[in-house]
């Protein structure tokens, strides 16, 4: 079923006014669309941007205060960083004027779990004043009797070309002039992710045009 999405189509027209976009199919986690006329280079630019340059938020800085589990600190920190966070991207750290962190560029999480008879610690055990953590998904660790773990963490905005934890898509497929991709269901809607990717392309093309004009001028 063809389902045109006006904001998406308008974004494509602003990036390239001569191109036509048609949404072929959408689900809560996938979107299938065509852009015509098109070239392999343009489609590949969309693919690479979806995979590596769409901004999102992930846990980036962790302080381990106590860990008596059998899992090393490094593994716990790695598991925290891969938890999908349904948070609108904030300012990049380099764009913020704060020293370390503030509500404009980061979200603070804490974890304080104590096991008397053994327990499974999931992402929903995290606490934050800014986010409802009860719906977060992801295993952090399994604790034995009389074990505990206490950590604080900062989540920041980044892109996947910096670290894979910032990747919002799971797969991008190109077939002729058709593109299909899937997003993590916890991080947002496919249409929103595509709009952000197209805006990134538009900004990069704009910077290139300005650089050429300044060079020629």
TrEMBL record:
GO terms for biological process: transcription by RNA polymerase II. PANTHER family: DNA-DIRECTED RNA POLYMERASE, DNA-DIRECTED RNA POLYMERASE II SUBUNIT RPB3. SUPFAM superfamilies: Insert subdomain of RNA polymerase alpha subunit (SSF56553), RBP11-like subunits of RNA polymerase (SSF55257). This is DNA-directed RNA polymerase RpoA/D/Rpb3-type domain-containing protein. GO terms for molecular function: DNA-directed RNA polymerase activity; protein dimerization activity. Residues 30-211 form the DNA-directed RNA polymerase RpoA/D/Rpb3-type domain. GO terms for cellular component: RNA polymerase II, core complex. Pfam families: RNA_pol_A_bac (PF01000), RNA_pol_L (PF01193).
């Amino acid at each position: 079923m063809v389902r045109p999405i006006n904001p998406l189509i308008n974004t494509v027209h602003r990036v390239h006014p001569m191109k036509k976009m048609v949404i072929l199919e959408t689900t809560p986690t996938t979107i299938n669309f065509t852009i015509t006329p098109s070239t392999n280079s343009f489609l590949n630019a969309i693919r690479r941007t979806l995979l590596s340059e769409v901004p999102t938020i992930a846990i980036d800085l962790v302080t381990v205060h106590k860990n008596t589990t059998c899992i090393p600190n490094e593994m716990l920190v790695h598991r925290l960083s891969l938890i999908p966070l349904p948070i609108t991207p904030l300012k990049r750290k380099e764009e913020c004027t704060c020293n370390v962190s503030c509500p404009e560029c980061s979200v603070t999480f804490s974890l304080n779990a104590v096991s008397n008879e053994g327990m499974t610690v999931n992402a929903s055990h995290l606490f934050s004043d800014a986010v409802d953590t009860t719906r977060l998904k992801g295993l952090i660790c399994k604790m034995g009797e009389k074990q505990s773990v206490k950590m604080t963490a900062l989540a920041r905005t980044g892109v996947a070309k910096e670290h894979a934890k910032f990747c919002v898509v799971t797969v991008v497929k190109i077939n002729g002039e058709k593109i299909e991709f899937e997003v993590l269901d916890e991080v947002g809607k496919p249409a929103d992710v595509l709009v952000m990717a197209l805006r990134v392309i538009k900004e990069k093309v704009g910077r290139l045009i300005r650089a050429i004009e300044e060079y020629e001028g």
